Amino acid sequence: MISNNLQRGDEAVSAAVATVLLFGGVISIIGLMLLSMMPVIQELEGSLKRNDMQAQMQIMGHEITTLSEAGVPGDSSQVELIPVDGELRWDRLRGGMWYSASWYEDDTFRIRGALDLNRDIEIRHAESNVQAVCYQDLRLGPDRPFLFTPITQADSILVTPKHGLTIPLGPVLIEQNGSDYSLSIGEVLRLDADSPFSSSHDLMGLQLSGEGGSSIVPPTKSNPSTGKGQHWAVPLPAGNSTLEIFADDDILVQWSLAGQSGDEAVVQSAAVRLANSWTKEVSLSEDSILEIVTDVDAQLLISYEGKGKTSLLGEEGNFISKHFIAPYSTGNLTILNPSENAATITWRNGGTSVPVNQTGTVSWPPVGIESAATIESSENVIIQWSTGDGGMAILPATDTGQVTGKEFILDDSENFDNFTSEFEDYTSVMGYTGNNGLIILEDDGAMRCMGINQTASGWISTTLPWNSMDGLPEGQIITAWQDGLHPASLEITLIGEEGEATHANLASSWAFHISRLTYEFDTSISGLEVAWSAGAIVTNHPEMNPAILVGPTDRQGPGPRFSATVPSIHPTKTSASGAGNMNLDLELTMRESLASTIAHDVRRGWVGPYGDAIAAWSSNGLDSSEDWIVNPGRLDLLSDYTGWVPIPSHGPSEAVWHTSGQPIQFNLQISSIDVHLTEASS
Question: Considering only CA atoms, which of 329, 379, 391 is closest in space to residue 352?
Fold first, then answer.
C-alpha cells in the first residue's frame, strides 16, 4: 500500500491566485484602454469614410457642372459611387436656394420662407412702396408637366414648343382628354379648346375665337424690367395677319415664315415723340410658325383678320403706366383712367383728356404720325389698341398692373368673365364683345399677382397663392409639385414705385427646391453626412460641424460681371437608395436662361443646414480687404473688394454680390438633370 503524503503549498496557491488576478487586471486594463480608444478608432474610420466619399462626390460634381454649364438636352454621363460604409439616399425637402436681382439703382429685394412648403412668405424692399408681388411656378423637375386650361370662349388653340437657351431632345409630349400628341421644335399643333391639357415642355400658344383677333405677343425671354424682348417664335393661324414690331430705337428685323425669310433695317425718325416700327402683311394657307429676331428690345403686335383688341404694355413692364409706345397699325386707342384725378394724355401734335374712372376712345394713328409713337399721361392709365368690331382682352388689374389682381376698371365690353382663385388671392377678368378674339395661352401657374400697397423698412408678410404642404408626407408633397398644387420652384416679381411710375418691375427672385444626394454614416456619433446640394459638397463631420468641401460654382469678371448656372438634380421615380455600390446615370433634360441683363443688386440665399457656412466660404476673400478690416459691416465703404459679402440675418443665410455700387452684368441659368440611381450589380 502506497502512502500519500499530500501537503498544501500555500506559496504556490498564492502565486497562482496572484497570476490569475494579474491576468484579469491586465485584461481589464486592456478593455478599458480599448473602450477609451474606440471613439478615436471610430473617428479615424469616419475620416476614412468622409474623405473617400468626398473624393467620389467631387468627381460626380465635376460631371454635373460640365453637363449643366455646357451640355444640351440629351447629353448624359455616368458616375459610380462606392461607399466604404453607410448609405446613399435622396433628400428632396431640405435642399434649396434662391437668387434675387434688382433692376434699379440703390434697390434691394430679399425673400424669406419661400421654400418652407406652407403659404407664408416674407419679402423686403426698404427703398420705396411695394405695390404688388407676382408669383410663377417654373415647373422644374421630372414628371412636372406644364398644365394649361383654355378660356371658355376659345374655339381652338395653336401651340408650338417654346424656344429657349436649349431645345428639347426629341418631341414635346402633349396629353389632352386621353389623346397623346408629339410636337417637335418648329412645328405647330391645333388643339381643341374644350378641355385642359398638359405638356412635357413649356408652350407658346394662341387661343382663337371666331374669325380674328389681336394681341401683344410676349417674347421668348423678356427683359424682366420692361417686358420687352428680341426673339419670338409664334404659331400663326391660316389666313391674313398683320405683324408689327415697334420700339423706341433703330430696328434690325430678321424674320422667317412658311419657308420664306428676310431682314430689314428701319431707322427711327429724328422727330420728337416718334418711336419706330416695322410692319408686314402675311397670308397663310395653313397654320405656320413665325420667328422674328431683332437687335434691340421691342414689342410684337399680331392682328389676325383685322379684328380684336389688346392692352398695351407700359414702359416699366406693366399695363398700368404713364408712358407707352403705341403701334402704328390703324385702329383705335381706348384709355381707361382708374386714378383719382382726370388724366391728360398727349402724343405728337395731339392729345385727349379722360375723367376719373371713365374711358375715352380716339382714332389711331393721328394725322401726321407715320410710325409708332410715344404716349405720355399725367396719371396712371390703361391703354387698349383695337381694330374692327368687338374683340376679347384680359383686363389688367389696377392694384397690380398685371393680368391678375383684386381691383379692376371695366372697359366698354358688353360681357365680362371673372375667375377667382381657390383662396381668393387673385382674380382675372376678361372683357369681350362679339365672338372674335385672340388670347395668349399661359400655363396655370403663371403670373399669380397679389396687391400689397405697403411701404415698410422691415419684412412684409404675405402669402403664396398655392396650397400649404406643411406637415404632409414626402410622397404627397412630390405629388403636389407634379399636380401644380404647390411650386417646387418659382419666380417672384416685385412691383412698386420707381420715380414717376407706381407699377414698375423693381426686382425678381428665383427660388428652387433642389434634391440633395446624401451619404449618411456613423462614427462615435450618428447623423453624419457628406451631401451634394445645388453644386456644393458639404459635410457635418466631425462633431456635427457644418463644413464646405466644395462651394457652389459661379463666374465673375472681368469688371462687374456675375454669371451662375444652378445645377438642379432630380431622382427618377425608380431611383434606388442603399449601402451597395451605386451607378448614377445623369441626363440633362433642360437648360434655361432665367435672366441676362443689367442688375444693381444681386443676392443669394441658402436654405438648409449649411447656409451660414456657404456664405462664409463664398466670402473668404474679405479677409484681405483693408476697407473691411477697418470698417467691418460697412458695404458703403468697401471699395477694394468684389465678390460675396455675408448679410447677418435670422433664418436662411444670405449674401450680396458687392461691386462698389457699379451695375452688374447679371446672367442666371438653371439646368435640370435627371438622375437614375441603381445598384451596380443590377
Answer: 379
- What whole-number distance in Å separates Cα of residue 531 and Cα of residue 548? 10
Is residue 365 reached through a cis peptide bond, with omega within 30 degrees of 0 on the bond before it?
A: yes
The pLDDT assigned to 17 comes to: 65
Q: How many C-alpha atoms does 204 have within 13 Å on its Cβ side?
A: 25
Q: Enter the C-alpha cell of residue 394.
A: 384680359
Would you tell me how many other CB atoms lie within 10 Å of the CB of residue 204?
Answer: 22
Q: Taking the mean position of all CA atoms in its chain, how far away is CA 125?
A: 19
Compute the distance between CA of residue 337 and CA of residue 385 in angstroms, rounded to an integer.
15
CB 394 within 8 A of CB 446: no
Alpha-carbon span 322 to 501, nearest angstrom: 7
- Give the residue from 464, 440, 426 showing the smallest Cα distance to 122: 464
Cα–Cα distance for residue pair 502/398, rounded to 1 Å: 11
By C-alpha distance, which of 520, 427, 569, 604 is closest to 83?
A: 520
Q: Which residue has the cell 414702359?
A: 315
With a CB cutoff of 8 Å and minimum separation 6, the contacts of 415 are 431, 432, 433
Alpha carbons 427 and 405: distance in angstroms, whole number: 5
- Give the chain's residues under pLDDT 50: 1-2
Write the DSSP assignment of 167-194 as a string of letters: --SSPEEEEETTEEEEE-TT--EEEESS
Report the pLDDT value the prediction gives residue 36, as an integer from 0 to 100: 59
Alpha-carbon gap, residue 405 to 332, rounded angstroms: 26
Q: What 3-state class would DSSP assign to 620?
A: helix
β-bridge partners, 265: 252
- Residue 318 CA, chain-centre distance (Å), reads 19
Question: Contact, 530 vs 519, CB < 8 A?
Answer: yes
Distance CA 663, CA 489 (A): 27
User: Which amino acid, one-letter code, is at 646?
Assistant: P
Q: Which amino acid is at 546?
A: P
